Amino acid sequence: MSGLAYARAASLESATEVIGSHRAAEVIAGGTDLLQRLEEHVLPPPLVVDINGVEGLRAIEVDDHEIRLGALVRLNQVIESAPVRDAFPAIVEALIVTASPQVRNLATVGGNPLQKTRCLYFRDQSTPCNKREPGSGCGALEGRNRINAILGGSEHCIATHPSDFAVAMAALDATVLVVGARGERRLPFTELHRLPGDTPHLEHNLAPDEVIEGYRLTRTPLARHSHYLKVRDRGEFEWAICSAAVALELDHGGRIADARVAVGGVATKPWRLGQVETALQGRQATAEAFAEAAALSVQNAVAHGDNAYKLALLPRTIARALTELRERL
Ligand SMILES: Cc1cc2nc3c(=O)[nH]c(=O)nc-3n(C[C@H](O)[C@H](O)[C@H](O)COP(=O)(O)OP(=O)(O)OC[C@H]3O[C@@H](n4cnc5c(N)ncnc54)[C@H](O)[C@@H]3O)c2cc1C
Ligand code: SF4
Questions:
Q1: How confident is the model over 51-66, as pLDDT tens digits?
Q2: pTM exceeds 0.90, yes or no
Q3: Residue 135 domain-assigned?
Q4: For 140-154, b where at least 16 C-beta lie within 10 A, e where not — what string?
Q5: Ligand index nearest the alpha carbon of residue 148
Q6: How many domains does the chain have?
Q7: CB-ligand 2 contact for 129 (6 Å cutoff)
Q8: Residue 281 within a domain
Q9: Which residues are near ligand 1 (CB < 6 Å)?
Q10: Would you say residue 151 lies in a domain?
């Protein structure tokens, strides 16, 4: 960790000023991802700006229309929030299966969607990786890619986005509140992350001087009827190889009036499946309708050898998530 400079920000304005004027500087929140990266010498920033002293970012604010999460809200704080559990169950379910209780006590909702990929080559300095070192090549394309993406990849990168929380936030139409040197702006959560294309090292749409202040979630009957299902290689303390956040609103006749489907562990960013949502609308909420709509999830998928099993796993995960949700509506 030699050569690392540390600063503490008293306000978000001062944090944005400092990271905007120091190339590659990063804010640090819970530090559960950034400190691991520093220990592994993977893209260590020259300066970290600690935002834990900034007031007003640790609250979950609730009113009749929406819930607002400050960027420094800890993952366990969200799990323990009865209003969030009631209005957005998929978010709490995604966090319950995230990391461990100890990690969740530290990790924040601001840092979680910006954690780095678990692609094996990204964290191994002896191998090529376009995300770590642009232009060096991609070790995963022809290598060990069992955990890599089948959706949203490019010839330069097929790394999956690792966050569970982000998948639920994408499904439930969350808004990101952003602060930068030019003031505040709002961003649909689905536009926070970028596709890798030929610049996989650029992962999100925040400017160098911008930080996440928090999120807004609008209460809707649809969000209240939501569910998160995660498939992983072991029962605890593991990232997803496939996951689905789903929401359904049924009319009085049991037909699907509205649906949301987003998936994780299979795509280069939290991945909304608009074609699956459209296929569900107007159908009776049956296992057959779920399976037919879920089959569309892999229409544009590309497998790369070891990860071909995800072509079968993804539709099954979506259909199972919808079935589990239907059983409790
Ligand atoms: C053993 C282990 C298992 C894990 N398992 C899972 C899992 O199953 N599912 C899962 O989703 N995650 C998992 N994680 C990842 C964990 O959830 C993340 O490390 C954590 O949520 C990151 O939040 P943080 O506050 O610690 O971020 P930090 O480490 O502080 O920061 C991470 C990144 O976000 C940036 N950042 C932080 N806050 C802001 C902000 N407000 N605005 C702009 N940028 C910001 C930082 O600059 C940095 O680039 C696991 C982690 C560990 C260590
Ligand atoms: S998939 Fe992306 S992160 Fe993994 S080796 Fe290739 S370029 Fe690097």
A1: 999 999 999 999 999 9
A2: yes
A3: no
A4: bbebebebbbbbbbb
A5: 2
A6: 2
A7: yes
A8: yes
A9: 26-34, 36, 71, 98-99, 103, 106-108, 110-112, 114-115, 162-165, 211-212, 237-239
A10: no
